[in-house]
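Researcher: Please predict.
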Amino acid sequence: MSTELVDAGDQLSYFALSFAQPSFAKTNLESCKSSCTSNCSCLAMFFQNSSKTCFLFNDLGSFTRPSSTSGFDAFIKVKAGGIGSGGGSNGGKGFPFGAIISIALGTVFAILALLFVAFRCYKRRGRGFQESHGDSSEDDMFLENLSGMPMRFTYKELQTATNDFSVKLGQGGFGSVYQGVLPDGTRLAVKKLEGIGQGKKEFRAEVSIIGSIHHHHLVRLRGFCAEGSHRMLAYEFMANGSLDKWIFRRRDKDQEGEFLLDWRTRFDIAVGTAKGLAYLHQDCDVKIIHCDIKPENVLLDGNFLAKVSDFGLAKLMTREQSHVFTTMRGTRGYLAPEWITNYAISEKSDVYSYGMLLLEIISGRKNFVASETSEKSHFPSYAFKMMEEGKLGEIFDSKLNLDKEDERVSTAIKVALWCIQEDMHVRPSMTKVVQMLEGICPVPKPPTSSPLTARLYSGIFKSISEGGTSSGQSDCNSDVYQSAVRLSGPR
C-alpha cells in the first residue's frame, strides 16, 4: 500500500513532545520525512527546526492546537491519494485538514467527558463501600491485637436474634438498643452503632475496655459485630432497664407507684454502683475513668442489682498517672468543675459525678429543675444549706417514708456532699466511698459548698427569676442542663 506524508503545518502539537526523546538529532526536515516514510510503523513525525531534532511516533493519541505556533512542523502519514485527490486548489495537499483535526479533537474531548462522568459516578457509588471497607480492615487489625475478646457475631446472627431489630429498648450513646434472644435462649441488649466517627471510637473503647474485665457491678459485654459498615455491641440483658426511670417522678401519676423504688433498694443500688467504680479505679490492670456516670448509665437486672454501663467515653490511665488532660466529654449536670475549667482530670472526676448521682438517688429528683423555687433549683446547693441547718430530712425523697432511725440516710447524704467538693483532692476515693456507705469507717461532716460553686450557679438562678436564660457558660435550661446533652470529644 502506497503512503504519503501530509503537511499539518506548525499549528499542531502533540502531548508526548513534552517528555519524549528525539528519534534523531542534528538532522534536517527532508531526512526526518524520509525516515518516517521508510518506517512502516511511523504514523506521524514532528520536526523542530530550532534544535534540528526529529520525532517519530508509532502510536497516536490526542493532538492539541496551541494559541501560538508550536515550533514544530507536523506531518501525518496517510494512504496515497486517499485524502484530497482530484487536484484542488491546495495542490498536493488538497484536503480540508483543519476540518479533520477539528472533528478528531471534538471526538477526543467527547470521549474524555464521558469517561469523566463515568468516573464520578463510580467514585460516588464506591465511596460508601471504600469507607466501610477501610473501617472494617482497620477494626480487624485493631481486634486482632486484643486478648480475651468476647464472642464475635456475624451481622446475620444479630439480625436474627433481634428479629430484624424490631423491639427497641431505648436510645443509648451513639446508637439505638434492641432486644435480642440467642438460639440457646440467652437474652441480649444489642446496641447498633450509627454512623462513623464517634461511633467507631465508642465501639473500640467498649470492646477493649469492658470486653476484657468482669465484675459483679459492671454490665457484661457478651459479644460484638464488626462486619463491613456494621458495628454492634451485644450486652447482657438488664430486665429493669436504667435507673433514671425508677427514681424520677413520672408525669402519669397513676403509674408512679410502679416505678417507685424503696429506700433500701436505692441504697443497695448506690453501694453497687460505687463498688463497680471502685473496681475500675483500683483493681483493673489499668486505671479506667468512666467519664459519664449518670442514672441512664446505671442498669438494673431483674433483682435490681446495679451495673455500670456505657464505656464509650472512658479514659485509660496508667497506675503511674495521677491525672490526665483530655477533651471534654460526659453529660451536663454531672461534670466535675475541672472539666469546665479545663484542668487535668482523674478518677476523682468520676467521684464527683457519682456524688451528683447519689444526690438524685436520695432526693428522687434531678439536680437542676427550673420549675422549682430558686432555692431548690440547684439541688446540691440546697442540700448543703439543709445540712448546715440540720434539716437532712428536707433532702430525702418526699415520696418515701423517712425512718429517722435509719442512719443510712444521713450517711448517704454526707457521702454525696463529700463527693461533690470543688477541690478534687478533698473528695474521697471510690474505695473510701464504699467503706463509708457500708459503715466500715465513720463519715465526718463535709465542708460547706464552695464560693466557686455558688458563683457558677448564680447566673442560673438569675435567669430563672427573670424567666429566661443567660448567655455564655450559664446558658442552660431544664431540658439541656440535666442529662439530655452529652459533651464528647475525640479520645
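Model: The chain has three domains: 3-95, 151-236, 244-487.
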